[in-house]
């Protein structure tokens, strides 16, 4: 099934509800009040309705290479949030998959005979996206509306319009160019140093009790770091295998039958 067909079959109302459930719309640290959040949800609902029609009615760009979208329900790799399920939306190039299918393949790491790359969709045009295939297992496991919601979550990651996504892409490109220039000039700050600097700045505005609380929590995190890393490695390996199995099943049914 092509993505345009998926969206043609979807109920935009249910897609909206699924969209708000598969990934939190608002951060628990967000500053919006209930009225502001309601307005944002109404705007998101409008965008979802617009894009359901836009994708289903799209003038497909057949000049692009063929790709398949996999929507997968995976385990959260954070030890503290192990009860959560996360939804991933990953794109595979069909020709690359065909070449790699009979080999010992890997997707997320270098352990394997060949590495199969996966891609995002947040900077893909609607015309190209509409011509992608949606993995049948994803539709069977998740349902049409949840698959649509996950695709839109990824598409809207950088903005609700193509203009906003293009602007975000240019901003990222400028940031990358600036970072590369800084490296060439010998200017470098590690992520750890940056976080420590931001933490010191934030703590300077906290009360004595709050500073003591965050100090103790930081010490606790250091003590359990090895446990959390072992757990994350285990879950990431399981999620990786889930992705590989889904790829082999989808393309095995398509190319090897």
Question: In words, what does this structure look like?
Answer:
The chain has 257 residues and is an alpha/beta fold. The protein has one domain. 61% of the residues lie in helices and 10% in strands. The chain contains ten helices and six strands. The strands form two sheets. A four-stranded mixed sheet has the order 5-2-1-6, sandwiched between helices. The protein has a two-stranded parallel sheet with strand order 3-4. Helix 1 packs across helix 3 and helix 2 packs across helix 3. It starts with a helix and ends with a helix.
Helix share bin: 55-70%
The strand order across the widest sheet is 5-2-1-6
Distance between the termini: 18 Å
Describe the sheet with the most strands.
4 strands, mixed
Short description:
With 257 residues, the chain is α/β, with parallel strands linked by helices. It is 61% helix and 10% strand.
Which key phrases capture this entry?
257 residues; two-stranded parallel sheet; single chain; 6 strands; four-stranded mixed sheet; alpha/beta; 10% strand
Question: What order do the helices and strands come in, and which of them pair?
Answer:
Elements: H1 3-9, H2 12-22, H3 34-56, E1 67-75, E2 85-93, H4 94-100, E3 105-106, E4 114-115, E5 118-119, H5 126-130, E6 133-134, H6 136-142, H7 144-155, H8 162-184, H9 191-203, H10 208-256
Parallel strand pairs: 1-6, 3-4
Antiparallel strand pairs: 1-2, 2-5
Helix pairs in contact: 1-3, 1-7, 2-3, 2-7, 6-7
């Amino acid at each position: 099934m092509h993505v345009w067909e998926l969206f043609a079959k979807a109920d935009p109302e249910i897609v909206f509800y699924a969209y708000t459930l598969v990934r939190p719309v608002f951060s628990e640290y967000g500053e919006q009040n209930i009225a502001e959040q309601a307005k944002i949800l109404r705007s998101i609902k409008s965008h979802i309705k617009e894009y359901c029609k836009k994708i289903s009615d799209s003038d497909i760009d057949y000049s692009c290479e063929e790709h398949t979208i996999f929507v997968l329900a995976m385990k959260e790799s954070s030890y503290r949030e192990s009860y959560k399920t996360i939804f991933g939306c990953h794109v595979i190039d069909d020709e690359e998959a065909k070449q790699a299918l009979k080999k010992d393949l890997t997707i997320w790491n270098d352990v394997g005979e060949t590495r199969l790359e996966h891609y995002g969709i947040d900077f893909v045009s609607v015309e190209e996206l509409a011509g992608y295939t949606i993995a049948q297992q994803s539709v069977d496991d998740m349902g049409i509306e949840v698959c649509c919601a996950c695709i839109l979550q990824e598409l809207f990651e950088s903005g609700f319009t193509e203009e906003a996504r293009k602007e975000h892409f240019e901003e990222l490109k400028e940031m990358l160019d600036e970072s590369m220039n800084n490296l060439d000039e010998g200017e470098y700050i590690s992520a750890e140093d940056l976080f420590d600097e931001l933490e010191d700045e934030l703590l300077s505005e906290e009360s004595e009790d709050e500073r003591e609380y965050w100090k103790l929590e930081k010490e606790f995190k250091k003590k359990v770091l090895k446990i959390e890393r072992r757990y994350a490695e285990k879950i990431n390996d399981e999620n990786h295998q889930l992705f590989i199995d889904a790829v082999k099943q989808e393309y095995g049914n398509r190319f090897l039958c």
